[in-house]
């Protein structure tokens, strides 16, 4: 119940005060600090109630009474702290805060190099961790052979757009690049499709990707290669690349 009300309060706060998508999680952690300021007096009130309840039934000396009070305060704060961390870091709350701009999840992507027409396939995750957003995953060549893995922190997010700097290691070569992703808006739900553009060392790429369902993700985890090929072929039939 407390988590439900917390979601409602922070969602209202977001709607009224937050205009930049990039600041949402930072604002959430500011709110978390304010909540800690509320936890202490609440803990003290509960501690006093429990202690009075025990004192009415068991007579304790001053030292034991002080030790009991200290123990109850520490225990209550510890419980509240764990609950708050769980609520703040929960996927449900993150979705509630981002609303229709939530893009977390597992995605597949087809990328084409503009000059040489080289095809790259990607299995990627967009995750939220504390006040940061990360893109990580694995890329494959056009024949589905392994190409490389990647992980990068998103440097800018706003209004269904994100950009990032990255390092791409292919073999012994390390390339530095910059990427940009534009998510297609849905009227009543978070995006499930994006268009991507990025460049690295005089090479320019563009791509399209879609969010995969939980059942599709399970198939990838059970038997990756045939499931991935099937998803990519389905995506190829829908893209304009």
Summarize the structure.
This protein has about 240 residues and is of the alpha+beta class.
Please describe the topology of this protein.
Elements: H1 2-17, H2 24-55, H3 62-88, H4 91-98, E1 105-113, E2 119-129, E3 132-141, E4 146-158, E5 161-170, E6 173-183, E7 193-200, E8 203-211, H5 214-222, H6 224-236
Antiparallel strand pairs: 1-2, 1-8, 2-3, 3-4, 4-5, 5-6, 6-7, 7-8
Helix pairs in contact: 2-3, 5-6
Provide the descriptors you would attach to this structure in a database record.
8 strands; 6 helices; 2 domains; Lipocalin; 241 residues; eight-stranded antiparallel beta barrel; alpha+beta; single chain
Describe it.
The structure is a single chain. This protein is of the alpha+beta class and 241 residues long. It folds into two domains: 2-98, no CATH class; 103-236, Quinohemoprotein amine dehydrogenase alpha subunit, domain 2 (Lipocalin, Beta Barrel). 44% of the residues lie in helices and 34% in strands. The chain has six helices and eight strands. The protein has helices spanning 2-17, 24-55, 62-88, 91-98, 214-222, 224-236; strands at 105-113, 119-129, 132-141, 146-158, 161-170, 173-183, 193-200, 203-211. Strands 1-2-3-4-5-6-7-8 form an eight-stranded antiparallel beta barrel. A hairpin with a 2-residue loop joins strand 4 (146-158) and strand 5 (161-170). Helix 5 (214-222) crosses helix 6. It is elongated, with a radius of gyration of 24 Å.
């Amino acid at each position: 119940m407390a988590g439900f009300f917390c979601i409602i309060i922070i969602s209202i706060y977001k709607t009224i005060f937050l205009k930049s998508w990039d600041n949402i999680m930072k604002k959430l952690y500011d709110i978390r600090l304010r909540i800690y300021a509320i936890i202490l007096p609440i803990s003290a009130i509960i501690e006093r109630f429990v202690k009075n309840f025990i004192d009415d039934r068991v007579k304790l000396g001053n030292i034991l009474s002080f030790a009991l009070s200290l123990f109850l305060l520490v225990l209550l704060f510890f419980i509240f702290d764990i609950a708050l961390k769980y609520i703040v870091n929960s996927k449900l709350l993150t979705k509630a805060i981002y609303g229709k701009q939530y893009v977390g999840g597992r995605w597949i992507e087809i990328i084409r190099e503009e000059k040489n027409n080289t095809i790259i396939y990607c299995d990627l995750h967009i995750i939220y961790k504390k006040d940061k957003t990360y893109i990580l995953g694995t890329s494959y060549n056009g024949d589905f052979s392994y190409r490389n893995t990647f992980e990068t922190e998103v440097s800018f997010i706003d209004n269904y757009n994100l950009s990032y700097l990255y390092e791409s290691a292919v073999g012994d070569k390390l390339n530095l690049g910059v990427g940009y992703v534009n998510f297609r808006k849905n009227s009543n739900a978070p995006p499930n499709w994006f268009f991507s553009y990025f460049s690295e060392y005089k090479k320019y790429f563009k791509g399209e990707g879609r969010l995969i369902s939980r059942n599709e993700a399970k198939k990838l985890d059970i038997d990756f290669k045939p499931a991935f090929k099937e998803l990519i072929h389905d995506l190829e039939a829908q893209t304009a690349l």
